[in-house]
Amino acid sequence: MNNALKGRRVLKISVIIPYYQRQEGTLHRTLASIASQSALPCITEVIVIDDGSPIPAESELSALPEALSNKLRVIKQENAGVSKARNKGLDSVADGIDIVAFLDSDDNWQQGHIQHMVQAFENGADFYFANFCQLNQDIDAFSRGGRMQLHEHAALTDILHTYQGDMSTQILTGNLIGTSTVGYRFTKYQSNRFREDLKFAGEDYLFWLEIALSNPSIMFTSTVQVVYGEGVNIFSSAQWGTTHLQQRLRDEIFFRSSTLKDYPVAEQTEQELTKRLKENCKQFFSNAKSCLKHGEISAMFIVLSTVVKKPSIIWLALQKG
């Protein structure tokens, strides 16, 4: 056991991995990054939800260290999307778990990620996140976003900070929370679940937002703790003129509409959300035209069903500004 963990009650962590990949070896690399954790004894279980993956999860489990393989559980379901997969994992968390950590099946944790997470929760955190590098990016997310000023957040160590500010606004206008960096106090938020109607955008933002509105203690690590991978990625095929982008824009519309309707936000944040909602609506119809030119007729069915459910998007798309 890591010396830093000796003499202390070991927090029990459940890791939830939604899994859908078309490339062999992707999940194995992700699991290997868990096995390399310096605080591996804190991980009680790793739950892999096989969401109807073309490459079965079981085929990715060979040659893993026994210290990890003994903690693994694979749950199979028909393909239903990442929200339902994560929720299935949350429904299956073992009794006595203190912390839930998320990890996508193509991302990799740095060796000290869980140790930093444990340190945050031992210092009273309810929610934890860390800096990361996104797909095909050399610069870290905090630096690229330009919204995280470390001097504004109290330092517990040289890299661990207590977040001080309006996290709700941060999430809704310049989110820096990468799902694969997140851990949260499951004992406090045991009933929280992802919105299953949002499959392509916004489901994670709403999950973080509901926690942020409860006035939690939030801590983060400023150095990169997660490297995002190159497996199946919901952004990779969401190119202009594709049905995938049509689905993503639809979910962004529903996400922002729901936020404005159901959650208390600051006036300036409300104005920014309204502005982005209008942009989403304009893009939604423009992308549909491009899809039609390319013969992607399925995008038209998305438009029709969305207009039936939320006819106001036509008016929003026509507005200036």
Short description:
By secondary structure, the chain is α/β, with parallel strands linked by helices.
What does this structure look like?
With 321 residues, this protein is α/β, with parallel strands linked by helices. It has two domains: 225 residues, Spore Coat Polysaccharide Biosynthesis Protein SpsA, Chain A (Alpha-Beta Complex), CATH 3.90.550; 76 residues. Helix content is 38%, strand content 16%. The chain has eleven helices and nine strands. Strands 1, 2, 3, 4, 5, 6, 7, 8 and 9 form a nine-stranded mixed β-sheet that branches. Strand 1, helix 1 and strand 2 form a beta-alpha-beta unit. The model has no long low-confidence stretch (mean pLDDT 93).
Key features of this structure:
321 residues; alpha/beta; Spore Coat Polysaccharide Biosynthesis Protein SpsA, Chain A; 2 domains; 9-stranded mixed β-sheet; 11 helices; 38% helix; 16% strand; globular; Glycosyltransferase family 2 protein
Strand content: 15-25%
Number of strands: 9
Radius of gyration: 20 Å
Q: Do you know the CATH architecture of the largest domain?
A: Alpha-Beta Complex
Structural class: alpha/beta
**According to CATH, what is the class of the largest domain?**
Alpha Beta
Instruction: Find the CATH topology of the largest domain.
Output: Spore Coat Polysaccharide Biosynthesis Protein SpsA, Chain A
- Distance from N terminus to C terminus (CA atoms, Å) equals 58 Å
Query: Helix content range of the residues, please?
Result: 25-40%
Give the ordered list of helices and strands: EHEHEHEEHEHEHEHEHHHH
Parts with pLDDT < 50 across at least 5 consecutive residues? none
Domain tally: 2
**Average pLDDT reading:** 93
Q: Which oligomeric state applies?
A: single chain
Number of helices: 11
CATH homolog superfamily of the largest domain: Spore Coat Polysaccharide Biosynthesis Protein SpsA, Chain A
Shape summary: globular
Q: Let me know the largest β-sheet.
A: 9 strands, mixed
Domain Glycosyltransferase 2-like: 14-156
Keywords: Transferase
Protein name: Glycosyltransferase family 2 protein
Pfam family, one: Glycos_transf_2
